[in-house]
Records
---
Amino acid sequence: MNTDNFLLELGTEELPPKLLQSLSATLGDNLSEQLNDLNLDYSGVHLFSTPRRLGVLISDLQLQQSEQIIERKGPSISAPDIAIDGFAKSCGTDRKSLQQKTFGSSDYYFFTKKQKGLRATDLLENIVHTAIKKIPIARPMRWGDSDFTFVRPIHWLVMMLGKKIVPANIMGLVSGNVSRGLRFAKNRKITITSAEKYEDLMINKAQIEVDFVKRRETIRDQVTNKAKELGATAVIDELLLDEVCALVEYPLTLSGVFDEKFLSVPEEALISAMKTHQKYFHMLDKDGKLLPSFITVANIDSSDISVIIDGNERVIRPRLSDAEFFWNQDRSKSLNYRIDKLESVLFMKSLGSMGDKTKRIESISKYIAELIGANVTNCARTGLLSKSDLVSEMVGEFADLQGVMGGYYALQDGENESVALGIREHYHPRFAGDTLPSSHEGLVVSIADKIDTITGIYGIGQGPTGSKDPYALRRMALGLLRIMVESGFNINIKELIIKSLSLHTSDVDTNSADDIYIFLMDRLRAYYKEQNVSAKVFESVLAVKPDSPYDFHLRVQALNIFIKNSASKSLIEANKRIFNMLKDQNNLDTDVDTNILTEVAEKRLHNSTIELSSIIYGSKDYVSNMSQLVGLKSDIDSFFEEVMVNVEDEKIRNSRLSLLYSVRSLFLSVADVSYLS
């Protein structure tokens, strides 16, 4: 099979940095899908992306489709001659050339022919055009007087198969072998001599690393080394690194400084100004303190680097001045004073203002604090003040500092340190893998805040549907459950949902508690899936509907240990058998008439269940409970080997069914292990 490498490069205006990687991945996926549909084999797909280009290299692309067998089914052999002759004529042949084959219970005429595969060069124009058009773009742009649309205007098109240009006219552009370098560099046009040399030519001729991952690591190394030169440590945020990489084709790392007076402002505000607004990396000294300097990555070389550095230093100064001004202004008013201003900030239609929300958070925080034995006064105070910084000047300018600035202002106001820490941390965890709050106050208020939002939005009928989750309730629910599970808070989630719903206005449906519980359990399922917990283990525990996520977690841990025991398989199957025997039985209970028991095996099993019930019922040590239940294996095995349950005597039958019901009840005190079958 003849193969060659295929290169596609779309040259564009500067692409949105936060979309660059997804655009690149989607283009690659679409090309792969088109090639697979057309039965064109290839060995690999390599993606390239910079601010001004999207590229794909398809390695070892099959140059021609394989020969295909085309088969058409015609009329039955008993059909009228006119129908058979008509079918043959439509196939461009005569009746004698048709084949007879059995299809189902009848025989039919079939026409079969071999079709030569098409050349890749004849297919690639449509493949590329379709791959581009299938990229989902929320706000497509139109340029010039053309009817073409894309996320940004496209200015050049490279399509090469090996060393040859693939002829194509796509979106008004004729394909060629000429790419472009930096806008203001000498080598503005680069001729691509072959598809496989594309990456090397771009780096050698234009100093552009078109591979996103390689360019990102180059920037990481440059930033790290620049900080080392200055005797400092650079803090590299991965999301910022990705964004910077999507902004530059020719990374040049530089450092600048700012006035030390700004260090009197909370460092989070300075870092936010540098990172969010200017895409700068900040540096720390050997003691972990913020330095009055930064590292920036330029996209162009210059004979006078000092001009670029000076420009960046001038740009960051007003940003830091703003942060300093907001810091000084905000401290003139206490968080307590700002509570009333929250009444004018809408939380959500039908759910009231942010002031209403803080009062609900305060109430729920008291409720939770009492349940877990935390400081009720501190938790309530933290909840009441938790949103006050939303109406501060600093958070108005730097939204990512909500909570953080509230912590600083609380200390400024003389609030308890644990209250300040709780305010600072109550938004955590904000995303997958984020840290939990470190204090009881932070944990309690985080739960209160999240459950209030979930119940409120769900209660007005705005919960997630399908893939749509406009209020990020799934992520919020996962954070809520993580706190309960990982912090060991044994809180009745059903009662918490009802409590939270009761605090909302009449616009919120208080009958939505069951739906909210099911929603939370579905998120708990996702949590355990990420922890590589078997779906059967999860369903086994869910079947007994534990009230508390932490209690749920303890049961999961016990089952994970249980299934590793050699006796577990026999006990699981026994439970499945018992379930099947009892599923149609009503009015059974654990009271067994011992006077009716006659067989040694059933008496022994009954005595064992009585002994175990006194140990297990009421115990939350599920690992120990399951270990105790493993001890029933021999008694259960003997019972099924020696005792007939479904005998004609109704009293004996019911007594033995009640005994099995007792056995099942013991296991159900932990989980329904029949789901493990």
---
Amino acid sequence: MAENRVYSAPGDEIETKHPVVVSRYRGFTRLNHWVTALCMIVLLISGFSFFHPSLFWMTGLFGGGQTTRWLHPIVGIVLVASFLLLFLQMWKLNLPRREDVEWSLRIGDLLKGDEEKLPELGKYNAGQKLVFWGMSALIAVLVTTGVMIWEEYFPHLVSIPTRRIAVAVHALAALGAILIFILHVYAAIWTRGTIRAMTRGTVTGGWAFRHHRKWLRELAGRRRTDPSK
């Protein structure tokens, strides 16, 4: 029983109505998620504007080159703080489990829509966990290299050759974050009913049973043993 409890988080709950509704994310978590997403979008656009002279026109979206140069690292700090809050809420739920290996090996069945052949999953599948840990690692790289190249406040932190390497690593990490961000958005759209979880905070019982059955069973078991639910 102790192992099963990690599949749910505060705020997860089954509501008795027709159709059955399952609470998946609290309002605070949803707000935290959208702040993080907004920061990512601002950083990607502002970062692109400095990536190549042909993209410099994008700085006009933020009031010009000087404003964009000031805004980019500031939003980066907000992103780190916001993502840290998400990380503290979700890291335990994203730890790898044995069923993740089987799920990954049967990814072809998922793409064909034959999810009955897949193992029962907790709150997140292996793909979602890959996005979570991949983004965690890349944000750590981005903030580290970002500080190294932030000349306004850290002009003598590293040597010029080291700073040049940091710029290249920063750009490569940003490219990786873009790819993961696109994958995350595509998966949310492709899996019908997923976006609702981050807009309304709930999913249908059918969605939970199909995609995250182990998590749903844990919630149902908790509801039966807790008279307050």
---
Amino acid sequence: MKSKQIIFGVCVVLMSINSASAKSWRGIEPLHSTRADVERLLGRPTDDKTPYIWIYDSPEERALVYFSPGVPCEEGLPDGWRVPKNTVVGVDVYPHVRRKTSEVLTAGKEYETVQAAHTPTRWYTDPDEGITFTVQDDAVSQMSYGPAGKEKNYKCGEYKYAAPVVPGVKLKGIEHYPFDEFGNIRYEDAQARLDNFVIQLFTLQEQEPEWRGYIVVYAGRRSHIGEAQFKANCYKNYLVRVREMNPANLFAVDGGYREDMQVQLFLGRTDYYPPVLRPTVSPKNVQVSKRRLTSCNQ
């Protein structure tokens, strides 16, 4: 094991100067390198207990290499890549000694940035090279190597936003996580959750009117036709009619399908990108009743 780490450490030293700006990592290029290529370049992993993740440890860093399971793309699910089984789809690198952001990012290059909502963490992405840098306290804590921008045709699909984004408009990238989320609960119980949501939204709007809310509903694997949009409309109508929320500041969205019905409530601003919809079950794999819901209490 020691000899393996020494060899791996030598590779780190020899290639460390250009590794942060190259689209490949240690000669491994997502969507083009295979499991056999990884073993040839790095030897056997430190940990291979997870079938499609190999872990390599060295004195300088820890690296996680991700492989495709070779599962075909499914309709309605944007996640995944059209590549054979055991093809590398990404590499995450965690350096033990963190370098300053200015030492890693290329000066003058324009990165796509996303700011965490409640922590100083920020992500810088070079979409052309497929590299994302995670920065905390002005130091790079993680480098993620993914497919280059030119490889987008291999992607299973494109993620959709919870609200329209005008083409060409640049908005602020802010981390989105639900203010609240719940399953298929009673309508009366959902109203209590919605009350807390709208109170927070009103409070934010008192300071800055640009704040708005998103109600995203995912239907379950077994559901009624149009159920997600119907439920989302029920919740929005309650906030508009009973809590007197401006309907222009609320988005009721059909998010697609998940294993079970799920409701997510998000807060955002007009100058933020909206939340991304993340369905996990293809429409081809759901059982949809032709009977439509007629009451919010159903």
---
Amino acid sequence: MGAPPAGIESRLEQAIVAAAEDPDGALAAAEQAEADGAGLSGDERAELHTLAVAVRGRVLAIRGSYREASSLLREALASAPDAYPKGQVRLIQALVFAAEKLGDVEDALAWAVRALETAHLTGDEELVVAAETSVGVARSRCGDAEGGLFHYRQVLAHFEATGQELLSVAVRNNIGINLKNLGRLDESLAAFERAAAIAAEFDRPRMEAVIRSNMGETLWLLGRHAEARAMLSAVIKSVRTGGWASAEINALINLGRVLTDLGEDAEARATLQRAVEAIEASEERSYASDAHLALAELHKRAGRFELALRHHEAYHREERAVFDANFERQVAAQRVRLEVEEARHEAEVERLRLVEVGRAHEELRMLHEALVATDAAKTELLAQLDQERRTDALTGLLNRRSLDERLREEAESARRAGAPLTLAMCDIDRFKLINDRYGHPCGDQVLQEVARLLRLGCRREDVVARYGGEEFCIGFVGTSLEDAVALTDRLRAAVAGHHWEQLRPGLQVTLSAGVAALTPDGDAGLLVASADAWLYAAKREGRDQVRWPAQTDAA
């Protein structure tokens, strides 16, 4: 079976690339190509239809109809001609994009790896590069920024070597995102600036808007608020009527963060609320947790703790929904893989039975050993994934997701037993200044050392976690509020008295903390919010101290 005529196939390939900037034109090209191929043979027509569906699925995803795109592409992939791997790869690429936008990151990675394996079978270098890009996207969205960066750099090197500047724009944008996620902000900004310049040179305004919505976050993280504000406001204005929900939502969230830092409460609140409404009106669930977290931070800074708690709970619901869905997909995918392996094994047994018996036994032994080794590797990988899912990569402490699970369990246990449960929320004082003065590597070392001191000063049954950024959380199991305050103050003193100058001359680190106790009618979420509120009281009243509810009368 051969491919469709080169001219028609080339037009469809170009339509896939152009879909991001001109979705209407891409759809028209797909319709025209199918009309031009009406007189082809059945096989050629089926192959041409595969590429046309890839264009339609890509356009649907670009316009925000991710579920419709995913359904269309999966159906087409099930009937795609086996002898036309190029069409299969293009369908899978579009499917990766839709799955990633729906938050199905593990699903996206599985599809991306399949696309890369299929592309290698064709020997088509351009197809391999396109599939490599999909793997980079999927690995990045799974939280593996370094892994994603590796694939992006491979793709960028190819585009630079072949002079394909326009195709390099999306890759440079993705490199900028990953560098930002790794804290390499100056490199991130340079990558975004180069990508935006090329997009402008080729007159790709939508592409440029997406890049600048991402660049605005890097500028915010660098503390360049005025530039970030101007850039993000311009992006929002330019994409408002363009149907690019993801770019607008991303820009709204980042602008809300900037306005929060600038103290412009009312405008920040209105901007972030617009982001939430835009998310609810679209399928952009991947941004929902970021929007609610930004609103929680805004309300917390303004002292609106009830609203902060409400958005913080919404943030956790979104995170939990993504986590639960991904976990279910992983279990289902693993079950399917095992069933496929068993079917292959049975087919191999039957084949070998028809060959010579002695050789069959030897091959079966080798196959069995390979399956055993594969199963052992799978078990090890699942254990590693579970460990990574539960712990913070930098400090080795429990991460926020594990903290939430443990606190819910401990709260239920405490209520049943009538035992106390207390929580300390701790924050490194002026941590941004440490990063600015000594650099981010030093900041990471400070986080690791503080985590070590906290773990060392707590009991085995206590729950010690990195809450996020420079915040840590300690759940004191079976401990009264009075004893928890004393323990927390001892930890605060241990941090303040540590020999930080051995890490960097002149370095000094202190800790502020708020402590709260579980109330009879309260829950884990309320306990966290209460401890967080007392942490902010400690910050307001001079830092390097512990605050708790018993001080209400004195305060």
